[in-house]
Write a structure and sequence with these properties.
- The complex is a heterodimer of chains A (about 110) and B (about 120).
- Chain A has about 110 residues and is mainly β.
- The relative contact order of chain B is 0.32.
- By secondary structure, chain B is mainly β.
- In chain B, strands 2, 4, 5, 6, 9, 10 and 11 form a seven-stranded mixed beta sheet that branches. Chain B has a four-stranded antiparallel beta sheet with strand order 1-3-8-7, with no helix packed on it.
- Classes of the chains: A mainly beta (about 110), B mainly beta (about 120).
Chain lengths: ~110, ~120
């Protein structure tokens, strides 16, 4: 069975600091992995996806994530946080192209001025 | 359409009433999904449509919940005899089935409040 664990329900960083949001997955076969962002009262927006091509994936708004099979991780990073990055971030996994997404519990990112 | 459209955006209903939530996916997307987002449970999968059929409805929490999709397009999620625990944001998403997974495109959701 697939599962996703996001370490830390809330992360706070200063503006300009590194953002690191952690995601570990459990899957018996190579998964497809995604990061979504949700701003208040909005739906989810796809940030980036891993689909077995390059292990370092670049997404929108300066975010990137690295797939590490040995660590079963897909952590999300951004070198320098902006105030506009404050939102909730969800890591998700699926095994196939038609399949449902299994989401982590989400990490709320706060950015301090 | 250009995006996934959900209606209504907000719905307040009395306990025991039936509600219908509508989702209009991106034109040409054959796969459609319903999820529920609530404070205690996070994001939960409800049901998945491929065309008009539902190969996976494993996430529907009870037989009060049902969904249909017609013409390979619009989908309706119906909750009968609503209960307070049904209060949540119901999110619809669609995706193009035959590509390498592109991830879902989500609508803005319907916020359901049962009073």
């Amino acid at each position: 069975a697939q599962s996703v664990t996001q370490l830390g329900s809330h992360v706070s960083v200063s503006e300009g600091a590194l953002v690191l949001l952690r995601c570990n997955y459990s899957s018996s076969v190579p998964p497809y992995l995604f990061w979504y962002v949700q701003y208040p009262n909005q739906g989810l927006q796809l940030l980036l996806k891993y689909t077995s091509a390059a292990t370092l994936v670049k997404g929108i708004n300066g975010f990137e994530a690295e797939f590490k099979k040995s660590e079963t991780s897909f952590h999300l990073t951004k070198p320098s946080a902006h105030m506009s990055d404050a939102a909730e971030y969800f890591c998700a996994v699926t095994l196939n192209q038609g399949g449902k997404l299994i989401f982590g519990q989400g990490t709320e990112l706060s950015v301090k001025p | 359409g250009a995006g996934v459209s959900q209606s209504p955006s907000n719905k307040v209903t009395e306990k025991g009433k039936d509600v219908e939530l509508r989702c209009d996916p991106i034109s040409g997307h054959t796969a459609l999904y319903w999820y529920r987002q609530s404070l205690g449970q996070g994001l939960e999968f409800l049901i998945y449509f491929q065309g008009n059929s539902a190969p996976d409805k494993s996430g529907l929490p009870s037989d009060r919940f049902s969904a249909e999709r017609t013409g390979g397009s619009v989908s309706t999620l119906t909750i009968q005899r609503t209960q307070q625990e049904d209060s949540a944001v119901y999110l619809c998403a669609s995706s193009s089935l035959w590509d390498i997974p592109q991830g879902h495109t989500f609508g803005s959701g319907t916020r359901l409040t049962v009073v």
